[in-house]
Amino acid sequence: MAETYNVDIAPHCPIGPISLAACLQLDFATPNVLIQEQIIGLGHGSKSEFLKYFVDSSPMEAKDGYIELMTKPGLGVEIDEKAVRAASKKINRKRFPEWTHKDGSFAEW
Description:
By secondary structure, this protein is mainly α. It has one domain. 23% of the residues lie in helices and 0% in strands. The longest helix is centred in the first third of the chain and has 13 residues. The two termini are 27 Å apart.
């Protein structure tokens, strides 16, 4: 519907690297995507930690602010299923940062 009215969209993807790969595939096929939100490096530690679920993370590397069209089948990246299985057995105690204003009230990201 946004395309009909010449409105750009900016998809929201704060979930993780595999969902980002899926969102990017939709973006590549959608003519009115302006920008793709992502959280690489925000509250997840290092960039390499975020991308460890891929056999080769180079297709997810931004170059000059852009991620190039992925050409592999499916999500465009090969998932390291062993790493995903190992991570699923760990208890995730990570929390996103809670940002506040100087007066202590909650702030939006």
